[in-house]
Amino acid sequence: MKVLRKRIGQDHSEKYLMELEDGNTIETLYMFDEKRQLTFHNTVCVSSQVGCGMGCRFCATGKQGFTRNLSMKEIVGQVDVCNSTRENARTVPIDAVVFAGMGEPLLNYEQVKAAILVMRSRLGISHFELATVGIVPKIYELIKDFQGTDISIRLNISLHASSDDQRRLIIPMTERYSMYKIIQAATDYAIAFGVKVRIRYMLFRDFNGKAEDIRRLTDLLEGKPMKLIISQYNENNIQGLIPSGRLEVLEFYNTISTAIDSEIFHNFGSDIQGGCGQLKQTMVV
Ligand code: SF4
Predict the structure, then answer these.
(1) CA angle, 115 as apex, 112 and 119 as ends, to 5°?
(2) What is the pLDDT of residue 203?
């Protein structure tokens, strides 16, 4: 794997454009969390596919379509590259890996699982995070494969809407798995591992931040072992989708956090197009 380009963000995030052996390219984000907002010091956000077939409307990766799955070696290779090339020689080793880059990791489950096992045994990493739009049967496979091991996988569900009708407009996979089924699987996951599942909710102006959204989300999540992670939508120049302002995010948080455990998420690397939904196979000129 070859690094074609590296960009460094204001928050010290480093985004790598990497070339695979067949000429395809992927992006990887390395995050140095000075304030420990992510719990860990050094985190790598890896891609699991070249492109993605899920077609989420807000996502740059989704716009380019699906090319192929990454192999276990290509997934682990991204962490090896970050370990060897990161800017300031940090004294703390990479201690967490997040599957939230390009691709839907649960649709490349066997290679993702193999990569987790290799990173645990060879690199000593035991903390993982996985972001999914909600591939319900695979959530149950995660439970079956990792319950009782020394590997912790924090599950993130990309919800971003308060009803199935609303979510279908931005996440076509909702057609297959309803929010009710996804939250049921997430609840089973949380109970199996004794942890909270993180429900990701990006706020789009005039779309999903109204009082009725707060009411529906409260009905869906109240009393469940979940944490709502609220963030601004990362601008991708997609027609009709505008990020909510900081004040709107704060007001939304202030209201919903009275009923549901919530936090506002810092979008790492958004100034270098390394934030959630911003990674893509970039052409090098
Ligand atoms: S948000 Fe995730 S699942 Fe949706 S298109 Fe982007 S990479 Fe794929």
Answers:
(1) 140
(2) 96
Contact 279, 102 (CB under 8 A): yes
The CATH number covering residue 72 comes to 3.20.20.70
Torsion of CA 98, 104, 107, 113, to 10 degrees: -10
Residue 213 Cα to ligand 1 middle (Å): 22
Q: How many domains does the chain have?
A: 1
Would residue 216 count as lying in a domain? Answer: yes
Q: What are phi and psi of 156, to 5 degrees?
A: -115, 125
**Pocket lining for ligand 1, CB < 6 angstroms:** 52, 54-56, 59, 61-62, 102-104, 133, 158, 277
pLDDT at 214 over 80: yes
In a domain, residue 280? The reply is no
Tell me: pLDDT of 35 over 80. Answer: no
Domain hosting 186: range is 2-272
Give the chain's length.
285
Which pair of tokens denotes residue 282? Answer: 């970039």
Please report whether residue 278 resides in a domain. no
Residue 274 has pLDDT above 90, yes or no: no
pTM (2 d.p.):
0.91
Split at pLDDT 50, 70, 90, the class of 37 is low
CB 52 within 8 A of CB 67: no
The H or E element spanning position 42 is strand 42-46
Percent of the chain with pLDDT over 70: 87
236 occurs within a structural domain: yes
Atom of ligand 1 nearest to the CA of 63: 5
**What is the distance between the alpha carbons of residues 97 and 257, in angstroms, rounded to a whole number?**
28
Q: Which residue has the higher pLDDT, 60 or 279?
A: 60
